Amino acid sequence: MLATSDLKAAPRFDRTAAAILDAAAHVFSEQGTAANLADVAAAAGVSRATLYRYYPNREALLRALGAHALNELASRLSDAGLERATVEEAIERLARALLAVGERYAVLASEQCPADEADQERLVVAPMQAVFERGITSGHLRQDLPAHVLRTLFSGTIMAASKLIQHHQLGLEEASAAAAAVFLDGARAR
Asked: What does the buried/exposed string (b/e) look like for 66-98 if buried means 16 or more CB atoms within 10 Å of the residue's CB?
C-alpha cells in the first residue's frame, strides 16, 4: 500500500513534467533550435538540475515533447467531432487542429524528432484517412485520386500554411481557413 507522502509526490511529478514540457514548447516556439535547456528550465521555473532529472539531455526532452505534441494533436482530433461533421467542415477542423499544434511544436520538425509511427498512425493518420475516404465515397471529394494521395497533398498544404504562420504572414485562423479552402477547391469532385 502507498503511503500518504507517496500519493502527494505523484501529482507534483506530473505538474513539474507538464510545466517543463509546456515551457519547452513555448521556448522552442519562440527561439527555435537556438534555445537551450537553461532557457527551458528558467521558463518552467525549475532549476537546471531538476530539468535534467526529468530529461537528462536535449534529445530526451525533444522525444518527450514529441510524444506530448502527438497526444495534444490526438486530443484535438478526438474533440473535433470529425465523424459528425460534413466532409468540408471536417477538413477545416483538421486544418485548424494540425496548424494549432504545429505552430506550438514547429521545432520538432526542424529537429527531426519522429513520433512513434504506430501511435502516429492510430491517433492522427487513421482519423485523417477516414475523412478523405468518406469524402471520396460521398462524392464530395474527387474520386480520381485515392484517399492516401489526397491526405498527403493536404499535409503538404498544411506544411505550407505552417510556414506562413511562422513567418508572421498569416495568423492561425487565417492560415487554417486558407489551407482548407485551397485544398478543397483543388480536391472537390468535378
From this structure: bebbbebbbebbeebebeebebeebbbbbbbbb
